[in-house]
Amino acid sequence: MPGSDSLPMVFTAALTDPGRKRALNEDAVTQLVTPYGGIFIVADGMGGHRTGEVASQMAVSQILEILRHKEPSPQGLLEAYEAANEAIYLAGQKPESRGMGTTCTTLWLDLPYALIAHVGDSRAYLLRDGELMQLTQDHSWVADRVRQGLLSEEEARNHRWRNVITNALGSFSSARVDLVGLKVRPGDVFLLCSDGLSGVLEDRVLAEMILTNPPEPAVVKLVKLANDWGGPDNISAVVVTIGSQVAENPRPYALPLEASEGRPVRLQSGSDPEVLTTQIVEPERKVTFWQRWGSLILLLLWFGLLGFVLFNQFGTGSTP
């Protein structure tokens, strides 16, 4: 969906599919191109029966409705998430809706800046200069173990608890939201997706599809590939490509220097909600076998050597 001559050049497409194994599609997606960029959202509901479907639709519709009437800012994005969380949490207090919740990842393009809010294990990626970077950190049991070095990426992908979410909209009375900000560059491509896509296709496949295809055929091919690989879950993808020109407009909110230079940074509100502290987003490093087990192996070898020395010194003496 290209912008008109009066709009920033933003090309986007969105697609959601139930997959091969689920009767219902509990994912929800939306996209809205605006004069300043656009709003793009992916949500993946949970809770069983129809409550997951309701939760994801509530998140997408409420966040979109709030943001479309706000001036873009990190604080405005947080407020939209807090409002959606409260609505879903209250709806989930009904006996028939116990346990309802949803992941939610939002890209708020305020060119030349991008603001991303994230809860759960739906993801936001950035493809820049041919390299794919995961901008969000999964809020899941296996992702926590990968960051701790207790599981490898491959083990996490196939773990029986890979779908256990540690943070979702509606699960608690207050929302815990991750924020990321950066300055976009011409040619940047953003991918938002649910785990029905990222949990099936490797990053190199995601990168290839969005690098070699415009947004609309890219989302179609991504969904098809995920279904070809079994389609074990609902599948959603939103691809947003920045055109060849990006306006240099001043913004009332000030992103940190690193973000204004184009480096993605995690934003965190302190006691003053208008003051943001930052941490640079680095590519998540895969943990090698030696990194995971090297210290334990060295410790065992040390004890083995100590035992060998003690045995030779005290255990082999002749009996008088």
Automatic annotation (TrEMBL):
The keyword Membrane applies. SUPFAM superfamilies: PP2C-like. It is an enzyme of class 3 (hydrolase). The chain crosses the membrane at residues 293-314. Residues 11-242 form the PPM-type phosphatase domain. It holds the Pfam family PP2C_2. The keyword Amino-acid biosynthesis does not apply. Signal peptide: none annotated. One of its GO terms (molecular function) is protein serine/threonine phosphatase activity. Keywords: Hydrolase, Membrane, Transmembrane, Transmembrane helix. It comes from the Bacteria. Its EC number is 3.1.3.16. PANTHER family: PROTEIN PHOSPHATASE. This is Protein serine/threonine phosphatase.
